[in-house]
Amino acid sequence: MGETGAVDRRGLRSLTALGKGRGGFRLAGLFGPRLRKGTLRTVFFAPALLLIVFLVVYPVLQTVYLSFISVTGAPTLGNYQDVLSDPETINPHLSWPPPLGTLLHNALWVAIHLPISLLFGLWLALILREVKGAWIVKSAIFLGMVTPMIVGGVILRFLFETGPGIVPSFFQALGIRSLGVSWLNYRETALLGLIFGSVWLWTGFSLIIYSAGLTTIPKDYFEAAKIDGTPPFRMFFRITLPLLKPMTLVIITMTLLWELKIFDIVYSAVGATGGTRGSVDVLSLQMFNYFVASKYNLAAAVATLLTLLTLVATAFLFRRMVKP
Amino acid sequence: MKVRWPKIRPKTIVIHVVAWGVALAWIIPFLGVLSTATRPATEVTFGWWQLDPYHPTLDNFIKALTQPTYSVSKGYLNSLIIAVPGTVIPLFVAALAGYGFSRFSFPMRHYIFLAIVLLMSVPAQMVAIPVFQIMVNLNLVDSQLALILLHTAWGLPWIILFMRNFFTALPLEVEEAARVDGASDFRIFFRIVLPMAIPAFASAGILQFMWVWNDFFFALILIFSPEKMPATLLVPKLAASQLITDWGLLSAGSILVLLVPLALYVVLQQYYIRGMIGWTIKG
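Above: the input entities. Below: the structure tokens describing the complete assembly.
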């Protein structure tokens, strides 16, 4: 809050300073110095606002509107009813193997992928402090973050396919027949394969953020605690973890966003259909398929649901970001 | 004479083995793709890790680059045509607005800023239908200009946030001195602020460029002609063009598409990491 005030005061100060200045534009003569300044300053915002309103805000509102009207244009809640009661979204016969429905697939992605990539990244960041050549290890793990997700999906397919893939060969060598197959072709394994595979692509994020966070903790804290005879696990829970809280918040938010929006990986790994009988189908892909089929109102309803989920996921972080 | 070795604790050895083991496991999929792309198909039928006959070749890459319909070299060019303006324009536009948000006070400033930042979390699917209709009306469907415009608008919220944070942290003295000398807002912005913002441009620019280069969804809904497709759109096409997946061709194409962001990351690593951490943590 304090900083916000400072910025305001600064702004005001520069405003008065400029009012006294001569200004550089001729047409300004018509207006008072204050008004002229305000008019010219809108030029700083105009291009950005124009583009954002035209290509982001209006489309968002229009999508919300489309989701609440029927094909004939009459107001309705039917799109949401249709989408939420569709087995494609939530499969009423909840049983393994998938399809469980797009909504639940996304939820499963969150439930498995979030804790694993978060904790694995944290653990790596902690042990890498004491490892020689840590930057090489970090770079190797960060490769997944640089990879275009469409290529990431291809590599996952490659990894899990019998023949080129090392995963089925590995399980064949172990004698586990059920896992020695092309994972993405079977409903039992496809979804889990992609979720675990996406841990491989995303762990670099939490590793890099946590590593950066760890360097900001003063060494004195640990040394003081060591002198006091604090055991390591206690040091971790009492010092390290609380001080890493802002990073944890960022990682959770960004990871949630990534999981909710996941699209490219699924598209390139199993195709636009979302795998065998939609066993890897996700919300964004469902929306895309409605879009391709020109079912715009249903597509809009799915998109709006997806957006609601992302807004909930980001609410905490943004509150912190905007009020420094 | 007795040599005194430095004391190495067993824990240190274990940690090194584990960490390096993880790194190795992590690059195995990349090694696999690389191995498959650089060897003839007959050598990798029983797994790319079989190294017995080993004849490195660039055939797969040449094939991918010179494919008749879905040539990756054309895709490269298209990606550049989209990504270069798709990075430069939003950087400039966002710098203007970010500077405005950091320096000028006006009614509702915080609310407008909050609204813009909130847009960052909106999924691409949320704008797809209306954007498609807008582009139909503007006669821009299947045109790279449509993608440039969309990426510009789409990148603005986070670049504005990034730039605003950067400018807020800049010392004010120089600008105030210039103001006392009678310089206008624009003069101050172009002559003083922009040159100081070059590191911020580098950080935001590399992230935006990678985002545009890596984008798949927007291109998928707006571009249909093979000769206009960016490289990412061609990747699934390479997989689908035969009945049986030609893994050599697909691997080579994938590596080619991956190469640009990878090279950028290697060369501009500090800026990339700074950009990533800057807009997530410091905000």
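Note for the figure: Chain B touches chain A through 103 residues (CB under 8 Å).
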